[in-house]
Amino acid sequence: MRKTVVVALGGNAITRSGEAGTHAEQAANARRMADSVCRARDAGWSVVIVHGNGPQIGNLSIQQDAGASQVPGLPLFCLGAMTEGQLGSLLSLALREAGGERLPGIVSVVTHTVVDAGDPAFARPTKPIGPFLDEDTARRRAQEMGWTVGEDAGRGYRRLVASPEPRRIVELDDIRCLVDHGSVVVAAGGGGVPVVEDGHLLRGIDAVIDKDLAAERLASALNANALVLVTGVPRVVLDFGTPDARDVAEMTVDEADAHASEGQFPEGSMGPKVRAAIRFVTSTGGTAIITDPERVCASLDPGGGHGATGTRIVPSLSRLGAAS
Q1: CA atoms 159, 165, 167, 171: torsion sign
Q2: Secondary element (H or E) of residue 56
Q3: Is 52:12 a contact under the CB 8 Å cutoff?
Q4: 260: number of Cβ within 10 Å
Q5: pLDDT digits over 187-237, tens only?
Q6: Which band of pLDDT confidence, cut at 50, 70 and 90, is reported for residue 307?
Q7: CB contact at 8 A, 193 and 112
Q8: Among 19, 57, 91, 154, which is least packed, fewest CB within 10 Å?
Q9: 172-181 vs 211-221: helix axis angle to the nearest 10?
Q10: Residue 181: how many CB atoms within 10 A of its CB?
Q11: 290 vs 116: CA distance, rounded Å
Q12: What is the CA radius of gyration of the chain?
């Protein structure tokens, strides 16, 4: 019986900082990620991939605005569906190239995620999308296009959109069947297309769901054994940017909670990943890992020295005792 891991990689892993975001660049980056997934599969894991879409949906929205005089623009949730299909195809093709006949099936599922229409996030946009901008350009676009803009973890300014909490993955049962069948599944891309319940119907709503929180919701619902949150660094760093900076091999849920309360994890970077990790470990008793793309497979090896290639978030003894 294979163990299941949900791997969440950011849209920035597919369109990397400093790149133009061409198809060739994105395909090369997807191939590197596919190699890591294939190694995890070879090591005995069933793999579900959740990807972000921040750079891609932001770029697509700029294209929409530029062409609005000729073609009607589409709402943001439609752009989410479009990028989910685009990146799902990109990753599926990369996996086929990397895995060949070793992978019995690769399926990308356009996924919808239920959110609460009354979520306070709709009144306070915080999710960065699109390219990094200098302050003058960001302020000008905010004025001309009605954007909300803000600084993203000291790396520049970006457009900010609403990011409500994911409540439910609509296609959960179908994803579970695919995993049980042995397929590598790409799902909840960009956090999933945000929808709200309207009686027995679902309707799209303009937002971009955080992919790490959506990955946690999916991993917990699947009762996965591990959740790997892929970022640009091998490990979580405490006191980042100070002389006291130090990386962390392992944290209990209680320790991660305490560090988060101290403001160690900014919302624009490590905050959602640590929050997703805490939720997953608390919900399932499994292990969450934060690391970079090259170390995904090695970080899943329990004999690798407790986080030798990543930061592991594990249950606290006090919480295990309370649960028992």
Answers
A1: positive
A2: helix 54-66
A3: yes
A4: 15
A5: 999 999 999 999 999 999 999 999 999 999 999 999 999 999 998 889 999
A6: very low
A7: yes
A8: 154
A9: 70
A10: 12
A11: 28
A12: 19
Active site residues: 11-12, 127, 211, 273
Flag whether pLDDT at 313 surpasses 70. Answer: yes
76-99 vs 23-42: helix crossing angle, rounded to 10: 60
Helix (H) or strand (E) holding 250: strand 250-252
Residue 149's DSSP bridge partners are 159
Give the Å distances, CA to CA, from 159 to 14, 58, 94, 107, 143.
19, 8, 29, 31, 12
d(CA 154, CA 109): 34
- What stretch of H or E contains 168? strand 168-169
Tokens of 213: 């929180």
DSSP for residue 239: S
Give the amino acid at 83: T
Q: Which residues contact 18 (CB under 8 A, 6 or more apart)?
A: none
pLDDT at residue 285, rounded to an integer = 95
Please state the pTM of the whole predicted model. 0.90
Tokens standing for 165? 């909490």
User: pLDDT tens, 154-163?
Assistant: 788 988 999 9
Residue 169, beta-bridge partner list: 113
